Every structure is written in C-alpha cells, then in structure tokens.
Amino acid sequence: MVTGRQTCDDVSFGNCLGLARAWLGRCKQYHGGISSFNVDYRTLPAEVIEDSDAKARNSIKPEWLKDNGFRPSRTINVGVKDAKTWGEPFLEIHRDGISTPEISWAALSHSWGGKASFILTTDKVEEWKREIPMAAMPATFRDAVKATRELGIQHVWIDSLCIIQDSPEDWEREAELMGDVYRRSTVHLAAHRSRNSDDGFLKPRPKADYVSLPFSSKRLKVSGNMLVRTPLTSYRDSLSSHHHSVLSSRGWVFQETLLSPRTIHFSHEQLFWECPNMSIAEGEALKIPRYFGVNYPVSPLDLGFGKLFLIPTLADHERNITADNSGATALTENDGVSMWYKRWYLIVANYSLRELTVATDILPALSGIASAFGSLVGGRYTAGLFLEDMACGLLWIPEETVGRETQRPSSYRAPT
Question: How many Å apart are CA 399 and CA 402, to the nearest integer?
Fold first, then answer.
C-alpha cells in the first residue's frame, strides 16, 4: 500500500503555509550536524517537542546556520502586525556604516518572465524606504511577503526589489554578494509555479480527485474510510521538468537552490521541503529518499542532487570530513579531492544547460557556488576552472542537445 496525505486545494490556506512553518520550525530546532534522531517533521504544531530529542536540540550547527555578521545591503521588511492587521512592507537598508543587529530573511527565486516593470530604481529608493503598498505589488512579490509573514520571518530578499536595476554599479556590487544572500538566508522560497511577477504562487491548485473506500483491519482493530488517488508527480519531476517548473532551466536558480540552507519548493501539486538533513513532500507520508556519494546519476537540469553536493559532512559522512557549506575546512587529498573535482564538472555541465536572460551573467551566476567549492577543496578558481585541476578541466567538449545549438559568445568573456 502507498501511504500519503491529502494536499491543500489552495496554497494560500493557513494549514498549507502552517505545514511549511512547522517544517522550518523543526529544522531550526533540531538540525545541526548529522542527526541520527527520528522526528516526524510533518507533525503540527511545530512547538510540540519530544523530550527524547534533547540531544538533537543541542547538536552543533554547521557554519552556514551561524551568524557571521553578513547582512544583505537591502531587504524588504514585511511590516509590523498590530492586533489585527499588517503594516505595509518597506525597503530597509542594512549597509549604512552602522553595525546592524542580527536579522533573519527569506530569499525568493522567481521567473522574471520577460521585462518586469515593478523594480527598484534610483528614484524609488526614498519612497520605498517609507512603504511599498501591497496592493501595488505584482502577485508573485505579494505572495512572497505573505509567505514570509506566515513563516514568522521579518525580511524577504527579492532581486528585482533589492538591487537598484538602473545602476550597473549597484548590480555589479550586489551580484558579488548574491551567493551569501542565499547561503545565509533562513529559508529559500522557490516559486516553481509562477511564470512571471504577475502570476503568483500562492493560488489554487488543480483539484485532486479522491475516491473514498471502506477500510477495516481485524488485526489492528480499526476501521473507517481510506482515500485513494492517482500518484502525485515525483519530487524530481516536479522540480526539474520544464512541464512542471518554470525554474527548472534558469541559470541563477541553480546557485540559489544549491547554496541555500533550506528551501520550500512551491510546486504545481504540492509543497516540498529540502534541507541537507532531509526532504519531505506535502502529499507523502514518508521522507523522500536521499543519496550519498559522488557518483550519483544526475540527469540534465536535475535539482535532485541538491544541497548535499556542497556539504561533505553529510554527503560523505563515513569519511568524517569536517568541512561544511561555508568551506571553513578544506579537504585534503586523502579525502578524495579528485573525486570532488568530478563533482564540480557535474555542476558545470548541469549549469551549462541552463538559460540566462542576460548572456554576460554566465560567470556571475555561478560565482557563489564557485566560491563555496573553492573554499571546500582549497582551490584557486578562474573562469569556470580550478588551477589545481586545470589539466583535466581543459578537456571539456561542447555537447549538442536536441533543439539547442552550441555556439561561441558574440563578445569576449574569458579565456577558453
């Protein structure tokens, strides 16, 4: 028998976002290093904690969950709630020469869907510091604010609202920080259903058809009705199929998802939770199987290999490597550095199949992963390659794919 749970008809419903809030609360409470404890992360409310989990509660957190003083230059403060209503969100500046207190933020991945009109420009900065009316926001950004509020987080980072879009200097400066914006976020919101900023992702879903059948077990002495449905789309297909996800082929999203400590995937049929310790589906009763090891088969555009790709503490725990997502401890040759370079080439091959709206973003959109990976292997990175493995790295060849012709860029980017 395949067991599962009913999914919400509308993602904006409180019980749906409440489930996401419970996942986040449990991860923040329990997930440090490798955990051997067994907790039902789908249980509501999140505050219900088993005494037997005290050991897990005190486990050491990896570097990417510790505050290192990093703050995004700007975030959207989602507003203050009084007895009944929320105040309007506003643009908050964090880099003004004054040491700011620790803050928590969500970071959004979304599809621009062409040219966007609701963006931060130089002339809007002062106005938006006072307020950004929710009614004026496109649906996708409005939904990001709503989800952030429901998760109990005060700030959300949205690229088009937190980077001054008519300032090349600001974009260049913020692009260098983007890897840390996602890596140091509390949670990453991936809007797989939103085709553009006006589409939104907290909206009704295709209605699931359930058939109610009588169920009885003499052995267990239980009886009642059992709901039967057709299987939901798998975790991998939901996140890596063009048909189901508008983010599956986006270049920037690859880095954003891989570096973020936690992701809530807002997919077409259900929510998915992903963190280095586990993955969970809203409509399934069992945890999604995870893999370990470098040689896991990775299909094109597959996000399935996820966050463990840069965390050897979890991915190769049998070798007791102490590095983490921040790259605080470099690997040694005894730890199989050559195998980790093979992992880098899988990353580059996957990334190379993705699309970028602006062709010159090809190196900036990979720079965050390159920085984390370089710290991990102790390598010197330059334009997609590491000097320590240059002889192997130069042996690349272009791979022709159906409907896509490989060609040289029209302008110079880097040596090839």
Answer: 10
